[in-house]
């Protein structure tokens, strides 16, 4: 019996990589300066217009308090499908430090790092082959973005 394969991507962020299902990625676009969101937290860089949608852009490093600032000179925006069922927030942009890399995940190529202390926006840490990656909690990130940008969808721990 063959192993189940999941097409995934490793998204480079400052000093780390995020592991996301390929199906969750809508598009990778070049970085453009987001329009600021009034009174938004520093990790919420603002909104960019993408295919008619206002997409909030998140600095994962700043959200998880691993970075004070993130470089944008060669950055990309990874447009992801939001897991919050809301017409206001169908997509979220993640600031990426380059192009994501396609990987195929199987049970034998993925190892969970036990007892990794995680931020609220991190579902877990894994090894993909010999590479460490964070698995972002995209549902929680969508809730945090909605709460910060629109004052909606209360966040619970």
Strand content: 35-45%
Instruction: Tell me the number of strands.
Output: 11
Shape estimate? globular
Structural class category: mainly beta
Q: Please tally the helical runs, counting DSSP H or I stretches of 4 or more residues.
A: 2
Distance between the termini: 39 Å
Total tally of structural domains: 1
CATH homologous superfamily name? CheA-289, Domain 4
CATH topology (level 3) name: OB fold (Dihydrolipoamide Acetyltransferase, E2P)
- As a whole number of angstroms, the C-alpha radius of gyration is 15 Å
Helix content: 10-25%
Main-sheet strand order equals 3-6-7-5-4
CATH class: Mainly Beta
User: Mean of the pLDDT scores?
Assistant: 89
Low-confidence stretches: none
Order of helices and strands: EEEEEHEEEEEEH
Largest sheet: 5 strands, mixed
Q: Can you name the CATH architecture? A: Beta Barrel
What does this entry look like structurally?
With 157 residues, the chain is mainly beta. It has a single domain (6-150), classed as OB fold (Dihydrolipoamide Acetyltransferase, E2P). 11% of the residues lie in helices and 42% in strands. The protein has two helices and eleven strands; from the N terminus they run βββββαββββββα. It has helices at residues 60-63, 138-150; strands spanning 6-13, 16-21, 25-30, 44-50, 53-58, 76-81, 91-96, 101-105, 110-112, 122-128, 131-136. The protein has a five-stranded mixed sheet. A three-stranded antiparallel sheet has the order 2-1-8, with no helix packed on it. Strands 9-10-11 form a three-stranded antiparallel sheet, with no helix packed on it. The N and C termini lie far apart (39 Å). The model has no long low-confidence stretch (mean pLDDT 89).
